[in-house]
């Protein structure tokens, strides 16, 4: 008998908690609204995925492969030859051509900081230099876009010289129409 009071008290607390929680459970209308929102977001994600233009061609060259001196952005003889090799393929493919410049995360050398205050300028200038050479080699300027990504999209780890060298690069990408 002396435990009956405890049992009734616990039963009362249990019933109170049960009904109290029902108050905060979502109603059928709220569940439908949440389902509709979820469907809307999934549809938007699918639309974004479908509008992402995949590329049909991509070539990647390090600054050392293309330029005499990466700070001057003058194409070396081997750099010009490298670009000449890909010209027929670029001309044969339909679509816009993105010339994307990338750098490592090393701050710009103080000797060239007046000309290129940050890696953004370095990457953009490299992309523009290659773009101008592609025009000289016969690619229509209407198809070309230059992009400078700075150090925002590394391929390799920037903690090693080999990784930084691979990150200083130019990508030539043909976007599918």
Question: CATH first level of the domain at 55-175: which class?
Answer: Alpha Beta
Ends apart, CA distance between termini: 83 Å
Derived structural class = alpha+beta
- What is the C-alpha radius of gyration, as a whole number of Å? 30 Å
Instruction: Output the CATH topology of the domain at 55-175.
Output: 60s Ribosomal Protein L30, Chain: A
CATH homologous superfamily label of the domain at 55-175? OmpA-like domain
What CATH architecture of the domain at 55-175 do you see? 2-Layer Sandwich
Kindly estimate the percentage of residues that lie in beta strands according to DSSP: 5-15%
Low-pLDDT ranges:
none
How many individual β-strands? 4
Question: What strand line-up does the widest sheet have?
Answer: 1-4-2-3
Number of helices: 6
Q: Quick one: biggest sheet?
A: 4 strands, mixed
Q: Shape from CA axes?
A: elongated
Helix content: 40-55%
The average pLDDT score comes to 86
Provide the succession of SSEs: HHEHHEHEHE
Topology diagram in text:
Blueprint: H1 4-24, H2 28-51, E1 55-62, H3 63-66, H4 77-92, E2 97-102, H5 119-136, E3 144-148, H6 161-167, E4 169-175
Parallel strand pairs: 2-3
Antiparallel strand pairs: 1-4, 2-4
Could you explain how this protein is built, in words?
With 177 residues, the protein is of the alpha+beta class. The protein has a domain at 55-175: OmpA-like domain (60s Ribosomal Protein L30, Chain: A). 51% of the residues lie in helices and 15% in strands. It has helices at residues 4-24, 28-51, 63-66, 77-92, 119-136, 161-167, and strands at 55-62, 97-102, 144-148, 169-175. A four-stranded mixed β-sheet has the order 1-4-2-3.
